[in-house]
Amino acid sequence: MNWKKKDAVLILTVLLIAGAAFGVHEFAGGDGADTVTVKVDGKVTGTYPLAKNQKIRINGGTNILTIKNGKAKMTDADCPDQLCVHQKAASKNHESIICLPNKVVVEVDGSEESEFDAVAN
Predict the structure, then answer these.
(1) For 40, how many CA atoms within 13 A lie in the half-sphere containing its CB?
(2) Rounded to whole angstroms, how far apart are CA atoms 102 and 58?
(3) How many CB atoms within 10 Å of residue 33?
(4) How many Cβ atoms sit within 10 Å of the Cβ of residue 98?
(5) Is 84 exposed, middle or buried (0-12, 13-18, 19+ CB in 10 A)?
(6) What does the pLDDT profile of the chain (121 residues) look like in tens digits?
(7) DSSP state at residue 92
(8) Are 51 and 70 in contact (CB under 8 A)?
(9) Residue 86: helix, strand or coil by DSSP?
């Protein structure tokens, strides 16, 4: 194979661009890009970063979602069964917390995958 100087420059340029794109994705968008989306009755009412500790009043205060240390947990609800309050904190991609009586769905959009496989998700 006969390599020319232009071929080597082209290959090096493509590798540098790919490396730069990978670096930007890993360092600028990797951590802190995880969010939690809150839906009430199928409509998105808010999207919040998991990197910021905060308490969110949902649906006029029927539910309270607490985001702390990169995890979202339903800490209070006025529903009779309290199943959403007893669910584990969600922090990985596609994990969710659901409150059926109040029609509230909280879902994580993140970079870290859950330990379950595609069938369990």
Answers:
(1) 13
(2) 10
(3) 14
(4) 15
(5) buried
(6) 677 888 888 999 999 999 888 777 666 554 456 899 999 999 999 999 999 999 999 988 899 999 999 999 999 999 999 999 999 999 998 999 999 999 999 999 877 665 655 555 4
(7) S
(8) yes
(9) helix
* CA angle centred on 34, ends 79 and 27, rounded to 5°: 165
Q: Is 69 helix (H, G, I), strand (E, B) or coil?
A: coil
H helix and E strand count, the chain: 2, 7
CA nearest 99: which of 117, 116, 79?
79
Which residue type, as a one-letter code, is found at position 104?
V
CATH of domain 35-109: 2.60.320.10
Residue ranges per domain, the chain?
1-30, 35-109
The 3-state DSSP class for residue 78 equals coil
One-letter amino acid of 103: K
Torsion angle in degrees (nearest 10) through CA of 47, 49, 50, 55: -70
